[in-house]
């Protein structure tokens, strides 16, 4: 009996090699899960100068906990929509101060699109970048020891 179930485009990226022979002369279907696509996009976004982190406040808090136990989520802050031939990505970033936010967003868009095309092998329909916050060095320093006490 033939398997008639097919994955929905929202859950997997599918590339069919059809009758084309690959390096081994074998044809078949390659399925790439959405989590892999979001990880590729997340890694590419983090490589851009001026990106401090990915995700909104809650996602970053959960990410900090995951980092503490060695379970980093590379797809944090990235949402992908995968079709048969195209992929779209939404990336939420925290930029470093005082970089140009537009230049950082353009860099993220370019880096993610390039990675998705080269690594995943799909056409990129769009990459939307949301700058959720700005990281200001010194705001998150835990150097309370260096501050002078107001009381004795």
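^ structure tokens above, recovered residues below v
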């Amino acid at each position: 009996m033939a398997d008639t179930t097919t994955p929905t485009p929202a859950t997997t990226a599918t590339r069919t090699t059809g009758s084309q022979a690959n390096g081994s002369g074998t044809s078949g279907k390659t399925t790439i899960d959405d989590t892999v696509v979001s990880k590729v996009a997340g890694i590419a976004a983090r490589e851009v100068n001026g990106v401090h982190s990915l995700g909104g406040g809650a996602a970053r808090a959960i990410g900090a906990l995951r980092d503490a136990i060695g379970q980093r989520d590379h797809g944090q802050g990235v949402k992908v929509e995968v079709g048969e031939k195209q992929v779209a990505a939404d990336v939420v970033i925290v930029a470093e101060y005082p970089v140009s936010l537009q230049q950082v967003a353009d860099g993220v868009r370019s880096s993610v699109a390039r990675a998705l095309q080269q690594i995943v092998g799909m056409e990129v329909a769009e990459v939307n970048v949301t700058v959720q916050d700005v990281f200001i060095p010194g705001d998150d320093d835990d150097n309370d020891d260096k501050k002078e006490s107001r009381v004795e």
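The chain has a mean pLDDT of 81.
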